[in-house]
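Checked the freezer inventory, then went back to the computational side. Two predictions to log before the end of the day. The first one is the construct we discussed on Monday; recording sequence and tokens without edits.
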Amino acid sequence: MKSSGIGGQAVLEGIMMKNRDDYAVAVRNANHEIIKEKKQYKSLGSKYRLFGLPFIRGIFSFIDSMILGMKTLTFSADIYGEEEEEEPSKLETWLTEKLGERFEKLVMGLTVAISIVLAVVIFMMAPVFLSNLLRPILPSVFWQSVLEGLIRIGIFLGYVALISLMKDIKRVYMYHGAEHKCINCIEHGMPLTVENVAKSSRFHKRCGTSFLIFVVLISVILFIIIQVDTLWLRLLTRVLLIPVIAGISYEILRLAGNSDHPIINLVSKPGLWVQRITTKEPTDDMIEVAIAAVEEVFDWRAYLKEEFHTEG
């Protein structure tokens, strides 16, 4: 396996693929046509040198992925639901006229901010409160921290499992599988055809699911080591350590995506296990969409010739 550097994300009835500053979204519309859009996105790390430094870039990479994710999800929703498009409200029309493109950026920013706050409350603060309820029967702060970690893992796995039961999310998970299969096909030296992609693995070490698993597990370890007795201090440390946790998790993820060392493969196992939930086997028409997205941003034939000395 040789890392290609490309990554992606499943969207509604489609795939987003990113290579350096270029990204493309391919979506199959109601008429079964593949609609594509290619644009550029400058990451925060490329705009500001400080944000691109190791152990700092992780948190800003996460913010980048959320912003780009919202952009591509909005595009896919517009294409997928274009036949059922509703008229904008009077307020939306007025704000669009007054603010123009700034309105879209404002909505995007608020959505990302609200999503981050909700994630912090649900996955960082809620386990602290829940474990604190059992404090009278726990022998020490150490065991309270252990219980907090187990609750955090349970909330995350429960959330992933529950949303997988939704019909639309099941299809998103199938497209997620198609995204991974395309990348694995290329990185294992095979031409990007439907047949080759179909027989490739749907699991990949450089996946967003693996990043979130690293975040959860590293937070468990850090919060066991850093023991704080007072409730408000426990909450404060959980929030303040989020950039540290994200930074460490991102560096491990980058290392995992570029190494087949046995220890790295072992560390990657939990993320690959959870991908059994977040990725599903795609259909051939989903694979066609994924291939279309890849080909908009990545010359896989040149890559195979350079890295594997084979013709695509």
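The second is the one RB wanted added to the comparison set:
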Amino acid sequence: MATKSDTIIKIEHLSKSFGDHKVLDDINLDIKRGEFVTLLGPSGCGKTTLLRMLAGFTNPDEGVITMGGKDISGVPPHLRQLNTVFQRYALFPHLNVYENIAFGLKLKKVESKEIEKRVRKALKMVSMTDYEDRDVNSLSGGQQQRVAIARAIVNRPQVLLLDEPLAALDLKMRKDMQMELKEMHEALGITFIYVTHDQEEALTLSDTIVVMSEGKIQQIGTPIDIYNEPVNSFVADFIGESNILNGTMIKDKEVEFIGHKFECVDSGFGENTAVDVVVRPEDIYILPNPENGDFSGVVKSCTFKGVHYEMIVETDKGFELMLQDYNAFDVDATVGMLVKPSDIHVMRKERTCNTFSGVMTSPTTVEILGTEFECKDQGLKEGDTVTVRVAFNRVELHDYKEDGKIFGSVHFILYKGDHYHLTVKTEDGDFIYVDTNDIWDNFDVVGISIDKRDIIVSKRV
């Protein structure tokens, strides 16, 4: 946790909505001086909106942003001690490289000798020393990106904001620029706040990663912490490849999953508690002799990935696991597998069933999710406020939205080894969670039905 003295930006209870859609929901974040912070998450998670608020291009509905201990709400962008590098570099096509970089300094009426000194230093910083007279339209994407960064750093900002600046580059150039950005950050010693949806980029560049989803911060930590100790299934799935499985914590340091019991290093979950278990593909050891493993399975696929082979193995209890190994194993081969206790990561379940607040509209109907559903008579009367529970596997999805009582779109798909766990966002913005063996894609629009026998209602006190 940053102390008062080393915190350059403090974000407190920041929220923003566009119409009925809440883009940011109670964001709290401290950013240290000289830190490389990455806002990481899928499209629509709110990361760019947060960056635009820091820049002053968008105003929050609620909350405060302070910089150097001063509230910067209402301070226009050009008076904030920060500069932004956009995904589209926004260079002036009628100006050459030198003039583009010098533009902001001329607006501030900096002396011409000082401008020349600072522009040449910025050009050297981005390895563009011999390009000052070039037309920006003649530059490659990577060179234009360097010019955009030079134009930002020449103003000597305390903070540099970067909104997916490498997204338009090809893979090789993107990786080269990642290393250059890292070197620039170390040389400049200023704070970088970087937005990306690329997990590998975040792990490569960052001192601190802020993982976001649906307008909320899911986890803040170092790349190693985020990768090795994800706090929930979203983070575990979003950061790298993972096997995320339902499990039961038998007791301290003993967990059951995929039909087997394993030693682990986790404790404090209680006994016989439902948990999620994460095992990274590279942490499952695969052995030619099935008798040498803790459990066995059959190789279903083997794909060469350049550095390693990626295999899907069906275990002896019918679960599919992803494994990564430097050695290839033949499809249909029976193999042994083992996992070290320290490579098993146990997480508390965020939820064990769907839970909604509702109101009884009659003894056999309840209003939830903005709609009236039939339910069994459970001794309640019209007007009672209730809690409604529905098991994940008792929600039915339909190909056509007209076939459901309500409809929504698939927002997040998690494979749990023998079934899919889906997050579906309804037309009213509520979330419903579904266990299914059917295959759906992100953003599929689906009808949603719940049988009255599967709606469990209890009166709220």
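For RB: Helices lie at 47-55, 97-107, 112-125, 141-153, 171-188, 199-205, 223-228, 233-238. The chain has a mean pLDDT of 91. Let me know if you want it refolded.
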